[in-house]
Amino acid sequence: MTTVAAYAAPAAKAPLERTTIERRAVREHDVLIDIKFAGICHSDIHQVREGWGEAIFPMVPGHEIAGIVSEVGPGVTKFAVGDRVGVGCMVDSCRECDNCKAGQEQYCASGNIGTYNGMGKDGEPTYGGYSEKIVVDEDFVLGIPEGIALDEAAPLLCAGITTYSPLKHWNAGPGKKVAVVGMGGLGHMAVKLAHALGAEVTVLSQSLRKKDDGLKLGADHYYATSDPATFEQLAGTFDLIVSTVSAPLDFGAYLGLLRTDGALVNVGAPEEPVSLNLFSLLGGRKTLAGSMIGGIRETQEMLDFCAEHGIGAEIELISASEVNEAYERVLASDVRYRFVIDTATI
Fold this sequence. Notes:
By secondary structure, the chain is α/β, with parallel strands linked by helices. The chain folds into two domains: 2-158 and 294-345, Medium-chain alcohol dehydrogenases, catalytic domain (Quinone Oxidoreductase, Chain A, domain 1, Alpha-Beta Complex); 160-290, Rossmann fold (3-Layer(aba) Sandwich), CATH 3.40.50. The chain has eleven helices and 17 strands. The strands form four sheets. Strands 3, 4, 5, 8, 9, 16 and 17 form a seven-stranded mixed beta sheet that branches. A six-stranded parallel beta sheet has the order 12-11-10-13-14-15, covered by helices on one side. It has a two-stranded antiparallel sheet with strand order 1-2. Belongs to the zinc-containing alcohol dehydrogenase family.
């Protein structure tokens, strides 16, 4: 066991505070990572505040982790001391179900083991990236290419793969019209990735406040959803809409923006149930879908793609002591576009 400093929520809805946690000793196939940067995801706030249901406390959030390998177990073959690596939203899975065997560990039939707010196979709770170090099985560690700065790479481990996976699955690319709903932590990555994949990209945001940013990051068009004329003007336009917002949408209105056989894919997860009139789907054979992160293989593909295209997250680097303020600013949409903790400040 190794004792490391971390920031944790001692109870639901409680402010995060500095503490210490225990990391397991490095086992045969484990990698010990000195965490350099940890992104703040809206998911962290949902879970710290039990917005998605009962959680495990104390909780050390953080599943956008970038760092350097400092030790490897004797059986490790994929990584060496000094390697630049990342850890995303999961640290293990059953590895035996059809989904795991297909490289889709995020959809493990038994449920993947979350990087935090989860229970490991050893029966111990998992603790995330708001900490100095983490120990992870090599099969759930990603290599971060040299072409991406570590601080800008951290958010790719959730925001990047969460948007890359549906864009790839629904064939975003040349000749396709893609809309991104929301211009936040996930949304700005969706814009960058859809543009790099060759799609014609439109941002649908509540206002035009971030229009200049959206166009700079790769959007071809930018519309305000607070203007009813937007839904009239863009009716029947898109092949794919990726919703990154964690608030309920008027699904009828957004489905009306799809072409025949178009898909509206949700990667944001509202805390409350949503309603839907099925006639919104029947006319035009449309699809309402969801998507959750990506498997390890696809996450590595995404990182390599980002390095090839010079893509990193737009970040605001903060000290660990600013984390509670950062949470409030995320809720107020006052970040452009991802807070990243410099873990040297923990």
